Amino acid sequence: MKPAIPSREEALQLARASLQMVRTEVFPRAERMVAVARARWMFRAFRMGRDVAAYGPVSARNDGHAELGDKLTFLGGMLPTSVVCYEHARLLVGNETQFNYGASVEAWESVQIGARCMFASFVRVSDRDGQRIAPIIIEDDVWVAHGAILLPGVRIGARSVVSAGSIVSQDVPPDSLAMGNPARSMSLDLVARDATGT
Amino acid sequence: MSTRDTLRTFIVDTFFVDDFADDDSFLRKGLIDSTGMMELVAFIETEFHIKLDDKELVPENLDSLSRVVAFVDRKQSLAKAS
């Protein structure tokens, strides 16, 4: 018995399904492979974990001791993200941290970033502001929103959020929301439902 | 105007909420968002001439009208005492 020739509809359906498969499975994976390869090239002067991906241009420079964790993501966009570690400086970035485009991280002495942090577009983190140099520490699970600036010497507590456009000049406690210029912190429990599971 | 009325008028005028009880949680009822909370803090500081510490910006002090009133009263009497 001859196998039935698929009808026009069936053939179309099959074609559509495979196209969908390519779109949702193959493209993202290919894109990720390109991003990982790009990151490997761009961060060749860095000590780097596995699966670091750069989906856009990153201007990276390491003259000191810079260490990147596993599974970092650098998104692409209008402007390159910049990661710079100057001579004798220390720059540590924890696992699974993400950077949007235009973010800038600069270490002159010491910048420590925890795991699973998120840095939105145009965020600026620098431990030198032209007057002084003081180390910056960002703990785990911190979210820094668009355009925020972290000044030298600040420590951002775990799970805290820095609002868009804020200028942080003082330490932010854990589980807080920092907002304004200069930023003030309030408990996340005050403004976010189930922020800390309480 | 009493502290309660001053605060209620400010909240109604600023956040366009007309009907809420003194014990309604600002957060859970969706009356005030995070930016609004900063506005409320700034208003309390200028209106009642008290300075709030960042550590005091917690739900126990600010999450309902009656809590804010009690908190402001407490701060004012502390300021007077010192």
The CATH homologous superfamily name of chain B equals ACP-like
Choose one word for the global shape of chain B: globular
In the CATH classification, which architecture of chain B applies?
Orthogonal Bundle
CATH topology of chain B: Non-ribosomal Peptide Synthetase Peptidyl Carrier Protein, Chain A
Supply the CATH class of chain B: Mainly Alpha
Q: Tell me roughly what share of residues is in helical segments of chain B.
A: 55-70%
By CATH, the topology of chain A is: UDP N-Acetylglucosamine Acyltransferase, domain 1
Query: What's the rounded overall pLDDT mean of chain B?
Result: 91
Rounded radius of gyration of chain B (Å): 12 Å
Q: What's the number of extended β-strand segments of chain A?
A: 20
Integer tally of domains of chain B = 1
Question: What percent of residues of chain A are in strands?
Answer: 25-35%
Per DSSP, the total helix count of chain B is 4
Strand content of chain B: under 5%
Measure the end-to-end span of chain B: 25 Å
Helix content of chain A: 10-25%
Superfamily (CATH H level) name of chain A: Hexapeptide repeat proteins
Q: Give a quick account of the main beta sheet of chain A: strands, pairing sense, barrel closure.
A: 8 strands, mixed
Which stretches of chain A are poorly predicted, pLDDT < 50 over at least 5 residues?
Answer: none
Structural class of chain A: alpha/beta
What is the H/E order of chain B? HHHH
InterPro entries (chain B): ACP-like_sf, PP-bd_ACP
Protein name (chain B): Carrier domain-containing protein
Domain Carrier (chain B): 1-76
Pfam families (chain A): Hexapep
